[in-house]
Amino acid sequence: MPDGRDYLIFRPDDVDLARSPLRATLGAETYVLGAFNPGLARLPNGNLLLMVRVAEALREPVARGHARAIRWTPDGYVVDAHPLDRVTMTDPRQFDVRGGSHRLLALTSLSWLLPVELDAEGREVVAVHYDRTIAPAAEHQHYGIEDARMTRIGDTWYMTACAVSAERHSTILYTSTDAMAWTCHGIVLDHQNKDMILFEGKVAGRFMALTRPLGELYFAPPPGSPFVGGPSINLAGSPDALHWKPDDHPFIRPRAGSAANMKVGGGSQPILTDAGWLMLYHGVETRETVGIYRTFWALLDRDEPHRILRLEDADPLIEADPTLTADIAHQLYLPTEVVFTTGIADGGADYIVASGEADLACRITRIPKARFA
Predict the structure, then answer these.
(1) In terms of Cα–Cα distance, which of 325, 372, 361, 367 is closest to 50?
(2) Pairwise CA distance, residues 261 & 216, whole Å
(3) Lesser CB count within 10 Å: N end or C end of the chain?
(4) In its keyword annotation, does this UniProt entry include Hydrolase (predicted)?
């Protein structure tokens, strides 16, 4: 059982690929590229649940002059082949397919979701629920399901995830009454959007969520603006968690001179404290292909969450820690300066925070509540 305030709790080698949903129909050898970016929720029995993103990749991503990618179909999983002279492979997570009118990507892995149950303190894995695996099951998911976020509101757990396909890049919603048996409600945001996360509670009787729309074009801020153009965190509201209206107010944007000057995006589900809504989010500093990912935090007004009461983007709350992955460094495929926070739970005097470390493994960080005073 790990001690201390920072540790890895689940790693690629902890996944039993013999029980992978791809195993029955995919006629190719695979491995776990990463087991990371876990949503976090408290179960009815008091234990914690990680909803782990398992990125499963081909052992031979290049064969017979082609780059290969896995795709779900109604009849099972298949391998697509793209001629090497038409692809650009500079990022280990994806490759560009040239020749179209728009930038086109293919993924080097297909992701599915694995529920991993921890003890109440988040220090020990007590069960891995392969019978509750969530895998692609529709055309809008045929390249995978990524980066789940879980929120409990009343007696219902809500989980959002990113569905990836050539058809669209969208956000899908699941609900559950026990955080184990999930019902998929399909697409709730029908445009390219990452990191949609429901607040853990309603505001004026309405569901609230963080969103982060993406695009290929951003307009320049006026000269002298404290902000930098690029992906930012927005807010949206809904009467039923299915139909969402974007909030008119601007929200958290990349700021010039900060350590989040490339882009920002949602991290943990916002939780209500005595001081307001506490949210952890990621900010990215420009550096080579991937950038440096860190975790920052903000405090929002309880009745008008677009009003930011406090924003901490100078001193990171969580940074990547290469010592955590030292014993699995041979499995790293990205720079180690990536930490991606995806969930938070009450741990008494501490908050228990779940993150993906280096797009490789699941990390738990215990943060004293006094840190946010």
Answers:
(1) 361
(2) 17
(3) C
(4) yes
The Cα 26–Cα 36 span in angstroms is 22
Q: How far apart are CA 181 and CA 189, in angstroms?
A: 23
Q: Average model confidence (pLDDT) for the chain?
A: 94
- Max mean pLDDT range (85-99, 252-266, 350-364): 350-364
Helix, strand, or coil (residue 178):
coil
286-332 pLDDT per residue, tens: 877 778 999 999 999 999 999 999 999 989 999 999 999 999 999 99
| Backbone region of residue 76 per phi and psi (left: phi > 0; alpha: psi in -120 to 50; beta: other values) | left
> What is the CATH class of 6-372?
mainly beta
Kindly tell me the burial class for residue 183, based on how many C-beta atoms sit within 10 Å of its own C-beta (0-12, 13-18, 19 or more).
exposed
231, 264 in Cβ contact below 8 A? yes
Question: If DSSP codes are grouped into helix, strand and coil, which group holds residue 72?
Answer: strand
Cα gap 367→259, rounded to integer Å: 21
CB 289 within 8 A of CB 90: yes
